[in-house]
Each structure stands twice: as structure tokens, then as C-alpha cells.
Write a structure and sequence with these properties.
- The complex is a heterodimer of chains A (305) and B (458).
- Chain A has 16 helices and no strands.
- Chain A is mainly α and 305 residues long.
- The longest helix of chain A is centred in the N-terminal third of the chain and has 35 residues.
- The relative contact order of chain A is 0.15.
- Helices cover 43% and strands 14% of the residues of chain B.
- Chain B is built from 20 helices and 15 strands.
- Classes of the chains: A mainly alpha (305), B alpha/beta (458).
- Chain A: This is Sugar ABC transporter permease.
Chain lengths: 305, 458
């Protein structure tokens, strides 16, 4: 995992070798099949999506597909449901990725460093178990946990607290929590690796100088794992932006459209309303949101300490 | 050009050629009919699978060397349709025969997914046995027929006589107006606490179930007899949400606001339809269900939830019009058809399989096991059919009051918009007026402006 952080944190350009660079086509030969495959199976669909987004293609109900220019994008920005989906996506991403998974992952990693081995193993196993179950399974598990006759309300009843119909009253919170539950393991692993890289001497020196636990954490640990934080935030955000199965299994974007994030909105437009063109345009906009986030993180990571 | 460049080009070309080669050739075998149909999401329910397997056997025996490949798709109706539409987009994946809901068929015809069957029908003697309304169910705007219906359904009120007795309501209940239904529900809420008085579906998640089983059952009982409150076939225009539309939403809002219905979160569960027949009705948790003629099939010995007491426990009543205005009763009908996909490479063999499905014996058996209302005159008169199921004569009698949904390509989109309006009015806390307004906006965009104001705009 330690290597993963290094790899992800290296979008910086490697310095070119000195001397004139000769292009040697033969070098590309071994790569040709892979390149062709990528172009066909990755590039092709992406280009095709780019094209569909500017058409009025429908899954059913229309036999012709016409080029409509920017109509789909205009429609999106004038669509109340789209705006609602954007807001919910941001809420979902902030709550579950930036705040939830990231902070919880870091806290777990920091605590596990000081814990005894059995405790560490057990905690790690539990957290990672939530991460390895398939998304759809996690969705159903959490649906069973949150539903009206579910485990959570049984627990609350047992404690004499008023039960809540979570999936109906606060659906976006419920799915955000579900995503935290499921995705924290990844952050925990990244941060565990990063923390173990910090040389003991430095922390010991700080301790000798009289820095308290929190002070050490704030002045030494955080700056030293800054890059891992950036990497982790980026990967987390991109993963969270595209969460679909979890929300679909738990709420289908409902009730109403109160948990309809962009991927769910996209699916609804493209497949329930058969508006493939419009759905694809929304997908491109989602890509843009992801790109924006990534750019911000890349900038943050670039600054030298 | 460097000497190496041609080499690279050659390698690249070879690689791509190899790729395209493995993409082709997976077409269809001329001796196999591929049949796509929807399998129930309830694992206990396999009527359709068993029936099709039996017909497949007959077909393969009667046509040596020919094979039938059944492609079950286990999904909710919406997802099933999406999946099949995607399959029909390419000749490589298109099934030969597709089970199509009449409510979507026009949309799929317009998309060019289906093949007209007129040539086959002209030579097929059994076609005369089909009643006219059923023949029209799969007729497109171009006047051609694209599907062979295998049955239809009607809808009415199922009520639990045991709960009725506890609430002191008359056992021969036959409501004359919407208010009679609400009154009965209120009485039950007061006298028999702990049961759900009335289930009317609502919201987007159940899909067409909520739109047809509850909203349209209400809407088509508003206004005057003979007028279509949803679509004006003469003007070929959609009717915007008028008074009837708002009244129907208001009825639903009342049911959920007064807690006469199930808990809203249960109502918005996509699987609520299954819950109604597998849990609520048999367990005596639900007093009135506005639901379809087919419910009984689930409670037979062979059904997903055998319940021997059902015909004694449940009573039936027709859905009344809003104020009891003529004709007094209302029902909606749908049904499914067998259609041949346009990209099918074995249309003739596919047609042969339709003929096999529609031998009189198979048609009778199918209408019985699937609890369908017959669309063929010879089946409707068959003793086996008429005595097959308690309540079948009641539901068959509703055929004269029944309405069919508008057969236009955009209906599925309109249906989605109605589902959203229902959800807004029952769960979203929006007023029926606001929900109807938002429906109007969507309708204008769906119908490309081909809308007409309701006669009773209020």
C-alpha cells in the first residue's frame, strides 16, 4: 500500500533525459496491441458517448437519432431535478467521502498504530470486511439495517429511544452513512501505510521537546502524510461520485428524488425515461465534476513542503 | 516512412482484424428460436417458465431438428423492458420472440424494434377468434399489427370479509362512489386498529403498477362517460392535468394523509406489489386492495403463496366512478403480447412458435395458469376456463366497463411523469395542484407540445 501512495502521488513529469531524443517507432511495437485494445474498448466508447450526448437518441419511442447540438446541456441546466441531483451529489460526496471515510480512516489508522496486535487484527478485519462485500450486497445489508422494521430501530427501541424511519426521513444521510461504512477501509489502509513511513526518531524527538499527542499529530504527522491525504481524497472522491449500486439498492433515489445523486439521475433519464442522449450528456457533466475535484487535489499535492 | 512503420501498421491491422473477427459470427442459428420473457422476481412463482417449457417440448417434437432457446429475464417490469430494448438494438443479441407489455409495445414499434405480423396473420385462421379490442392492443399508428395478445386483465376492489365483519360493514359491499370507499376505510381504521384499511399504490418505485392500478382506475372514473381524460385520440393530443387529474391525486393524498393506506415508506417500496398478495392479504393485515384480476393465481396450490381460504375470505367489488356517474363502474385493462423483433433472423420459425403458443389448448391452459382474462372467443367459452378460478366471471364481467391505456409511443414516458406526480402528492408533501402543474410541464415536453387543455379545467 505504501507503494500505492507513491505511485498515485507521482503525476509530476519525470525530467527528460539530456541529449537529443530520437523517436524509435520500433519501441512502440510491443505496446501496439495493448494500445489498439485500449483505443477500441476504452477510447471508442468514450468517443461514442461524446457523440451521443449531442443527439436526441432514445432507447425506445423514436426510430431516428438527430444531432441536436447543445440542447441536452441546456435542458440539464434548466432542469430542477438535475440541479437537485448536483446538490445531493455534492452533499453525498462531502459527507461520505471528505468528512466520513477520510476522517474515520485516519482516526482508525492512528489508533491502530498504538493498539496491541490482536486488537489491530480484529479491527482491521472488520473494517475491511465491509469493504470487500460487493456493492449491491452492502446496499441490501444497509437497507435491512435502516428500514422501518430494521436492526437500527430495533436497537433504538431496546434503548428506549424513539425509532426513526431513516430511509424515508433522511435518505441522503442514510446512503451517506452506508457509503462511509463501506468505504472507510480504503482510507484506513492508505493512512496506515503512510503513518508507518514516518520515522520514529522524529516523533521521539518531538516528544522529548515536550510536544503533546495532539501537538505531535498536528505539527508532525499531518504535514508528513500530506501527499497521502491528497491521493486518498482524490481516489475517494472519484469513487464516491460514481456510487450507484449502493443507492439504487437502498432507496432507488427516492422517496421522491431526495436521494437521487447524479449517477442515479442519469440512469433514470437514460433507462426509465429512455432518453439516452440526455442521460449521456449528464454523464459527461458528471465527468466534468470529477475532473474539477481532481484538479483541485492535484494542485494541493504539487506544493512543495 | 521508416522501414519499421509498415511493420507496425501490419501488426496493428492484424490485431484489429483478429478482434473484429471474434466479434462477428456469433449470430443466430437458423434452427433455433430465441424467446425472451420476464421471469417473476418472486422465486416461488414459475407459471410462465413451466408453461413455456411445456410448449417448447411440444414444438420441438412437432418440428424435428428445430430448437427453442428460452431466455428468462428476472427483473421488475421496468428493468425487463430496458434490458430487452437493449437486446433488440443489435442483430447479434436480438431475440426472435419477445414478450411485450401492450403498454410499451407502441413505443418499441416506433423505435423500429418490432416486425409487422400482417402477412402471417392474414393466413392464420385463429386470428378471427380474437376480440377486436385485443386485436387493437398491438396495432400501431401505421395500421399494422405487431403482436399477438395472449390474454388481458381487469381491476377491481378485493376486500377481506373477516375484517368487514369486525368493522360491522355489509358483507355484500358495493361502493357507489369514491367517498363510499373512503368511508369504509375510515370505519375500519376506527374499529379494527392494526390493519391497513386500504391499499392504493403510489409513487415511482412500483412503476406502471401504481400508475395503472391506482391512478388511472381513479382518473378514468372522473368526468363524463366516453371521454378519455388522458389522451384525446381524435385530436391525437394529450390532455393536460385538469380537474379529474387533481381529484385523483387528491384522493390519493387523502388516503395517505389520513393514514388510511400503508405506511408511506412501504408504499414506496418497489416490491410492494409482491407484499400485498404474499403477506398483507393472506395474513389479514389489509382490508381493501385496489388490485388486478390475477391475484388469485398466487394463492392456488401451484401458486407462490398457497392459501386455501382465499375465495371464502375475500370479497370482490367493482371500482365505482367518482360520484357514481354513468356508467357507474370503471376498470383498466392491459395485457401482454408475443412479438417478433425486427432484427430477428428467423421470423418464420418465431411465428411458428407463436402458433404453437396459441393452439386452443395452450391458450386455455395459459389463461388459466396465469389467471388472465381471455381475449379469444373460443377460450372465453371453454368450460375449463370458466370454472378455473373463483372470481373469474366477476372480472370477465368488468370487460364491458374497461378502458385501455392510450396506445401511443410516448405513453411510457407519460406514465413515468404520472408516477412522479403521484409521489409528489402523496409523499413529497406537494399539493395536487402543484403536482398537476409539474405534470403539465413534463407532458408538453414529452408530447412535443401536442397537448390539449382538459375540458374540466378547474
Amino acid at each position: 500500500m505504501a507503494t500505492a501512495t507513491k505511485v498515485a502521488a507521482a503525476p509530476t513529469v519525470t525530467p527528460a533525459r539530456p541529449g537529443p531524443r530520437r523517436v524509435r517507432p520500433l519501441r512502440w511495437l510491443p505496446l501496439a496491441p495493448a494500445t489498439v485494445m485500449l483505443l477500441l474498448f476504452l477510447g471508442g466508447p468514450i468517443v461514442y458517448c461524446g457523440y451521443i450526448a449531442f443527439t436526441d437518441m432514445q432507447l425506445t419511442g423514436a426510430s431516428t437519432t438527430d444531432f441536436v447540438g447543445l440542447d441536452n446541456f441546456r435542458r440539464a441546466f434548466g432542469d430542477e431535478d438535475f440541479r437537485n441531483a448536483v446538490v445531493l451529489t455534492l452533499v453525498f460526496t462531502l459527507l461520505s467521502s471528505l468528512v466520513g471515510q477520510n476522517t474515520l480512516g485516519l482516526a482508525l489508522a492512528a489508533l491502530m498504530q498504538r493498539a496491541s496486535k490482536p486488537v489491530r487484527t480484529l479491527t482491521g478485519a472488520i473494517v475491511i470486511a465491509a469493504w470487500v462485500v460487493p456493492e449491491i450486497v452492502a446496499g441490501f445489508l444497509l437497507y435491512a439495517f435502516f428500514r422501518r422494521e430494521g436492526t437500527l430501530n430495533a436497537l433504538l427501541d431496546g434503548l428506549g429511544l424513539p425509532s426513526q424511519n431513516w430511509l424515508y426521513t433522511l435518505p441522503i444521510l442514510a446512503v451517506s452513512f452506508a457509503n462511509v461504512w463501506r468505504g472507510t477501509a480504503f482510507s484506513m489502509l492508505v493512512y496506515s501505510a503512510a503513518l508507518s513511513e514516518i520515522p520514529k526518531e522524529i516523533t521521539e524527538a518531538a516528544e522529548v521537546d515536550g510536544a503533546g499527542g495532539l501537538g505531535r499529530f498536528w505539527h508532525i504527522t499531518l504535514p508528513m502524510i500530506r501527499r497521502s491525504i491528497g491521493t486518498n481524497l482524490m481516489l475517494n472522491t472519484l469513487q464516491t461520485l460514481s456510487v450507484f449500486g449502493l443507492i439504487w439498492a437502498m432507496t432507488r433515489g427516492g422517496p421522491g428524488n431526495r436521494s437521487q445523486t447524479l449517477p442515479v439521475f442519469m440512469y433514470d433519464q437514460a433507462f426509465n425515461k429512455s432518453l439516452i442522449g440526455y442521460g449521456t450528456a449528464v454523464a459527461l457533466l458528471l465527468l466534468l465534476v470529477g475532473a474539477l475535484f481532481s484538479m483541485v487535489y492535484l494542485r494541493l499535492m504539487k506544493e512543495e513542503v | 516512412m521508416r522501414p519499421t512503420t509498415p511493420l507496425i501498421l501490419a501488426v496493428t491491422l492484424a490485431a484489429t482484424a483478429g478482434l473484429t473477427a471474434c466479434g462477428g459470427g456469433s449470430g443466430s442459428d437458423p434452427d433455433t428460436v430465441k424467446v425472451a420473457y420476464n421471469r417473476s422476481t418472486d422465486n416461488k412463482i414459475r407459471f410462465k417458465d413451466n408453461h413455456l417449457a411445456a410448449v417448447k417440448k411440444q414444438f420441438e417434437k412437432a418440428n424435428p431438428g428445430k430448437k427453442v432457446k428460452l431466455i428468462p429475464i428476472q427483473a421488475q417490469d421496468n428493468d425487463y423492458a430496458t434490458k430487452v430494448q437493449q437486446m433488440m438494438r443489435s442483430p447479434k443479441t436480438a431475440p426472435d420472440l419477445v414478450y411485450e407489455d401492450t403498454f410499451r409495445i407502441n413505443s418499441d414499434i416506433k423505435a423500429g424494434y418490432l416486425r409487422p405480423l400482417d402477412d402471417y396473420l392474414a393466413k392464420w385462421k385463429s386470428w378471427d377468434q380474437f376480440v377486436d379490442t385485443a386485436k387493437d392492443a398491438a396495432k400501431a399508428e401505421d395500421g399494422k399489427t405487431y403482436g399477438v395478445p395472449d390474454g388481458t386483465d381487469t381491476r377491481g376492489l378485493w376486500f377481506n370479509k373477516k375484517i368487514w365483519a369486525k368493522a360491522g360493514l355489509p358483507a355484500d359491499w358495493s361502493p357507489k362512489s369514491w367517498n363510499d370507499i373512503l368511508d369504509a376505510a375510515r370505519t375500519i381504521k376506527k374499529k379494527v386498529p392494526g390493519v391497513i384499511p386500504l391499499n392504493v399504490y403510489t409513487g415511482k418505485a412500483p412503476g406502471e403498477t401504481s400508475v395503472m392500478q391506482s391512478f388511472e382506475m381513479l382518473l378514468y372514473g372522473t368526468g363524463d362517460a366516453g371521454a378519455d381524460p388522458l389522451y384525446d385520440p381524435k385530436a391525437k393530443k394529450w390532455v393536460t392535468g385538469g380537474k379529474g387529474f387533481k381529484d385523483a391525486l387528491n384522493f390519493l393524498k387523502t388516503v395517505y394523509a389520513e393514514k388510511l393506506g400503508p405506511d408511506i415508506s412501504d408504499a414506496l417500496d418497489p416490491n410492494v406489489g409482491t407484499t400485498v398478495y404474499s403477506e398483507w392479504l393472506p395474513e389479514g393485515k389489509l382490508a381493501i386492495a385496489l388490485d388486478g384480476s390475477w391475484l388469485g393465481q398466487n394463492w392456488l396450490e401451484t401458486g407462490g403463496k398457497p392459501w386455501s381460504e382465499w375465495s371464502k375470505t375475500l370479497g370482490l367489488a367493482a371500482m365505482p366512478t367518482q360520484h357514481g356517474q354513468a356508467p357507474g363502474k370503471v376498470s383498466m385493462s392491459g395485457g401482454w403480447t408475443w412479438a417478433i423483433s425486427a432484427k430477428s433472423r428467423n421470423p418464420d420459425l418465431a411465428w411458428k412458435f407463436i402458433e404453437q403458443l396459441q393452439t386452443k389448448d395452450n391458450a386455455v391452459t395459459w389463461d388459466i395458469v396465469d389467471a388472465q382474462i381471455a381475449v379469444r372467443k373460443d377460450v372465453a367459452q371453454d368450460r375449463k376456463y370458466t370454472s378455473s378460478m373463483p372470481g373469474i366471471t366477476f372480472f370477465t364481467s368488468l370487460v364491458k366497463y374497461t378502458h385501455y391505456r392510450p396506445t401511443t409511443p410516448v405513453y411510457p414516458q407519460v406514465s413515468t411523469a404520472i408516477g412522479e406526480a403521484m409521489e409528489a402528492a402523496t409523499a413529497g408533501g406537494s399539493s395536487p395542484e402543484k403536482a398537476a402543474k409539474s405534470y403539465d410541464d413534463q407532458l408538453t415536453s414529452i408530447a412535443d407540445g401536442a397537448t390539449v387543455a382538459a375540458a374540466d379545467r378547474g
